């Protein structure tokens, strides 16, 4: 870890830099400035990647777009890319992204620690691992675009790539890319230097140049510095014509056939080879890094540990000769290694890092510092660090809360938001069944597998839910027992049910299809007796229950025309009497919301919010027209009514708060969320979290938390998508007591809000 400069930023969001990852004046600078940083409370350590150039709007957009794409790719197994866990807000003067910290050296720093080119075993392992990583990336249709030695980070577990899309950030396609900061000409394929779009075979050229540098330990070494077994394949990588270069897959196959296998270090105990190791993993066994690099990584880890504890470290490293024939004069500055036969004092610190606690694994080589004899001191650095990190602290401002627990769900994930049960239980509905979970721990409380749900369930707010299974069924969410089934309306029967409408008290209501006609039917779930049935003008998409008025919403198809009308039908929930039926112009594609008390129905229709009085034949109370966003109409997503306000997000993720009675805009607040492809889908429905004074919203990318009073963005939560998809699942959020329960694909997270 290198010292900070006087002009370095003091903060990146919630993180405080404690040092630089790259040495000053490196022969191959990185296109980003990279810092090691601690979170405000010291619980987390990350590497910050900040744009190295002067702020410019177009470059900032390119930098952020590349980081967002890297974030989307980060969940794909085997890519060996530094995960992007957090991004700066779009409005920040300097764009940055963060990745979890582990002891790593950029390739130039590893070369410096070694004092020259890396050994044959290391170069061969590096070649195979990077070829494998590029092969996985190219299979997704992406190119790395900016592979240089500075983009390769070495750790004891193998190399990772950082700085996806650096070529595109440095200069747009079509413009010559010469003398770009952090992108030396030696590593830029000829076609990209001329302004061509980064493509997979360009990555292969850059990989060949990186391997030449790793073997020679300097620029300009060329293939002559490579081990004999690598020279021929790397020479093909460096051919001017992209068509003559091998693909990453073909290159990996050739490298694996030619590569030697690592031998365990002399001091390591005998082990049994993992029969599951294949590909590059077989070359990355302990010992793949040379001793000097491993020792230098240990020194970095100790410096980071020391920076994470208030005050100065209570040990003084003693520079000693390295192991074997190497001499101390050739060791990297700041490297601390063991002396053969040296006797450690009582204060010898065994440094390590394993999951954020004491213990370091760095290429299979341990390291420790020998300190001077002195009287017994107070707590050691490691003890102070453990005490500091184990103490329970509040989440630093601006940082999403860490999940209290998380669970995997069956099938393709939840069909709808998590259902609140009793004080201790929540339920998740999937196509495999309904599962009850302990809200405090996430442990399974009960399971109901015989319902075969096909859509989201309707909770009644009192611990029961109407489930859309093979037939409508009412489920007790406290124990998973079925309280009632409508067996005569089983799907595939003579009078199958269509859409669930409402559940309140002992009454369950849904639609029935019979001879092409649609009817609303209500049952008493205690006796099983039919209460009433009322014909409807057409199929229903759902309903809103306001007091004793059931407003049935029409099903206008999957892609209704925004200007088409929609016919709403109001029924008395007690007896099914039709109270009114109104055709509302331009509402076919509307999103509807109702308040838990009162008779006002609110709709988002395109870029307008409208309110209707359900007691007065759907008389319009007010209308609010939204502003354009990026010179285009910005449609609203589904609204939410809470505390006398209507909350709604538009396509630009601008949160609006509108008075329910007045229709007056109380405030609106941009979310500081970047514009991505996800913005083209319907914005998410906000959910009020009263205990936290927050409004939450979840989409395909993240969960956003806004202050309920003013709309300031509080934090963003993003999880890793394990399997990439052309259409990633929308995240769903439910607030239960002091928890935000987020379903994301097949994962469920419980985020504490207080």
Automatic annotation (TrEMBL):
InterPro entries, per database record: Kinase-like_dom_sf, PQQ_b-propeller_rpt, PQQ_rpt_dom, Quinoprotein_ADH-like_sf, WD40/YVTN_repeat-like_dom_sf
Domain Pyrrolo-quinoline quinone repeat residues, every copy: 474-614
Matching Pfam families: PQQ_2
PANTHER family: CELL SURFACE PROTEIN, OUTER MEMBRANE PROTEIN ASSEMBLY FACTOR BAMB
The protein's name in its UniProt record: PQQ-binding-like beta-propeller repeat protein
């Amino acid at each position: 870890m290198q010292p900070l400069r006087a002009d370095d930023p003091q903060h990146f969001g919630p993180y405080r830099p404690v040092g630089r990852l790259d040495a000053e004046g490196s022969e191959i600078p990185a296109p980003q400035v990279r810092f090691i940083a601690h979170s405000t409370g010291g619980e987390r350590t990350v590497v910050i990647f900040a744009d190295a150039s002067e702020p410019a709007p177009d470059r900032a957009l390119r930098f952020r777009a590349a980081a967002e794409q890297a974030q989307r790719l980060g969940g794909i197994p085997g890519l060996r890319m530094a995960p992007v866990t957090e991004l700066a807000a779009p409005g920040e003067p300097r764009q940055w992204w963060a990745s979890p910290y582990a002891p790593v050296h950029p390739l130039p720093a590893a070369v410096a620690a070694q004092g020259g080119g890396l050994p044959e075993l290391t170069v061969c392992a590096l070649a195979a691992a990077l070829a494998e990583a590029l092969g996985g990336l190219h299979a997704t249709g992406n190119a790395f675009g900016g592979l240089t030695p500075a983009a390769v980070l070495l750790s004891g577990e193998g190399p990772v790539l950082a700085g996806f899309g650096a070529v595109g950030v440095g200069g747009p396609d079509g413009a010559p890319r010469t003398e770009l900061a952090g992108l030396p000409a030696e590593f830029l394929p000829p076609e990209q230097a001329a302004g061509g779009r980064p493509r997979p075979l360009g990555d292969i050229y850059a990989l060949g140049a990186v391997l030449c540098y790793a073997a020679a330990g300097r620029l300009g070494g060329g293939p002559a510095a490579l081990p004999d077994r690598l020279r021929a394949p790397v020479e093909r990588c460096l051919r001017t014509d992209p068509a003559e270069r091998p693909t990453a897959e073909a290159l990996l196959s050739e490298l694996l056939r030619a590569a030697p296998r690592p031998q365990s270090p002399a001091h390591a105990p005998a082990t049994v080879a993992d029969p599951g190791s294949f590909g590059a993993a077989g070359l990355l066994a302990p010992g793949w890094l040379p001793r000097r690099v491993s020792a230098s990584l240990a020194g970095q880890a100790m410096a980071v540990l020391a920076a994470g504890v208030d005050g100065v470290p209570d040990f003084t490293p003693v520079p000693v000769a390295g192991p074997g024939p190497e001499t101390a004069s050739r060791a990297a500055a700041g490297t601390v290694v063991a002396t053969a036969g040296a006797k450690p004092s009582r204060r010898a610190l065994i440094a390590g890092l394993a999951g954020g606690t004491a213990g370091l694994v760095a290429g299979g080589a341990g390291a420790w510092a020998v300190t001077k004899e002195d009287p017994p001191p107070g707590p050691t650095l490691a003890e102070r660090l453990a005490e500091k990190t184990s103490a329970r602290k509040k989440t630093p401002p601006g940082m999403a809360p860490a999940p209290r627990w998380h669970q995997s769900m069956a099938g393709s994930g939840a069909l709808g938001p998590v259902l609140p049960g009793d004080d201790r239980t929540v339920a998740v509905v999937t196509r495999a069944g309904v599962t009850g979970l302990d809200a405090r721990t996430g442990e399974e409380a009960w399971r109901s597998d015989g319902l075969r749900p096909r859509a989201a369930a309707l909770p009644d707010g009192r611990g029961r839910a109407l489930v859309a299974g093979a037939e409508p069924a009412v489920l007790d969410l406290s124990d998973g027992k079925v309280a009632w089934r409508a067996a005569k309306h089983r799907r595939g029967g003579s009078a199958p049910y269509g859409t669930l409408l409402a559940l309140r008290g002992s009454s369950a209501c849904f639609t029935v299809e019979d001879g092409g006609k649609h009817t609303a039917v209500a049952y008493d779930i205690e006796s099983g007796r039919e209460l009433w049935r009322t014909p409807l003008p057409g199929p229903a998409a759902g309903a809103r229950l306001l007091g004793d008025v059931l407003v049935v919403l029409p099903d206008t198809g999957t892609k209704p025309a925004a200007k088409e009308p929609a016919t709403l039908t109001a029924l008395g929930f007690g007896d099914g009497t039709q109270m009114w039926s109104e055709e509302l112009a331009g509402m076919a594609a509307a999103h509807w919301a109702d308040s838990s008390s009162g008779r006002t129905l609110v709709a988002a229709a395109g870029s307008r919010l409208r309110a209707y009085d359900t007691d007065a034949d759907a008389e319009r109370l007010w209308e609010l027209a939204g502003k354009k966003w990026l010179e285009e109409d910005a449609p609203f997503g589904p609204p939410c009514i809470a505390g006398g306000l209507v909350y709604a997000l538009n396509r630009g993720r601008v949160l609006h708060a509108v008075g329910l009675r007045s229709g007056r805009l109380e405030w609106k607040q941009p979310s500081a969320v970047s514009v991505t492809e996800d913005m083209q889908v319907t914005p998410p429905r906000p959910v009020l979290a009263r205990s936290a004074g927050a409004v939450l919203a979840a989409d395909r990318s993240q969960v956003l938390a806004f202050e309920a009073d003013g709309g300031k963005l509080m934090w963003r939560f993003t999880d890793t998508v394990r399997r990439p998809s052309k259409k990633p699942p929308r995240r769903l959020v439910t607030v239960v007591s002091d928890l935000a329960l987020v379903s994301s694909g097949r994962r469920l997270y419980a985020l504490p809000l207080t």
